[in-house]
Amino acid sequence: MQITPPYLMFLGDVPDQLAAKTAQGIVDWRPEWCVGQIRLPGCKADLRLPDMSIADAAAQGVKTLIVGVANAGGVLPDHWTDVIVAALNAGMDVASGLHTRLGSKPAIAETAARTGRSLFDVRHTDQSFATGKGHKRPGLRLLTVGTDCSVGKKYTALALEKDMRARGLDADFRATGQTGVFISGRGVAIDAVVADFISGAVEWISPDAAPTHWDLIEGQGSLYHPSFAGVSLGLLHGAQPDAVVICHEPTRTTMRGVKTPLPSIAEVIDLTLRCGRLTNPAIRAVGISVNTQALDEAAARTLLADLSTAHGLPATDPIRFGVASIVDRLLLEFPLPATVGA
What we know:
about 350 residues; Rossmann fold; 11 strands; DgcN-like; EBNA-1 nuclear protein
């Protein structure tokens, strides 16, 4: 897919900021591509970009409208169609990370055909995948896992890539969700892959590599989430990680979208390592990543120190405090030749 910036971010009428996490992720990691946002009445999300009409965005040279939302089931509501049709008529392409294909809406499909504009369904791929084999692959792999969905697995993997590359290490972010694909320009939305082929798809996006190369694989869902555990397990087996970082949001008591109690970090570490040993008996935890946005700095530092002591692992907020401590631990656990990263 060749999705052309600059972008106008469409947020619809989502009920909270987290529902706009696809758009927020693109803004956070590719701000130079994002010109403005368009919202419907009742929208509770704000990217702190200029609010624009379709006409305003076209005058600013926007090339693509991004449907930047994530909702249960990946549904494209009918009442969003008019905005998408207007964007197509204004000469923009449209890209979406939802499960519902843009072209499944007759008005959108007909307008795209008439105007010659492109529709990009990032969550869907024409690539065929084999079933996972679990054979040991050369190279090193780290997977971010979570106590819940939407706790910072993507941001942690991207922050690790940035820090490791700054140190001269050979590291690549591997996207497994629609937002990550938008940010990196490559990857597979794993939750749209047929269940039998999830682990094979992850093997495909993280193939054989040099012995000192790190693939930093974006996690999805949680092994404890009743809605998404199947995806999380297939991803864990296909990633075959040497290392995992546990991601956590400390203010939640139940998992997002359900009434299931939030598991403890210790429970997630234990289950992840037990399940992960199927494809990598040497799997180990190397850090804890905590989204402390809801805490003041003093409370955040206290929490991170307590978690580090309790679990014997570096604990940090990758956005607030960086991931240097986790990279340090990674290099201690997996020492590289002296010439690498020098």
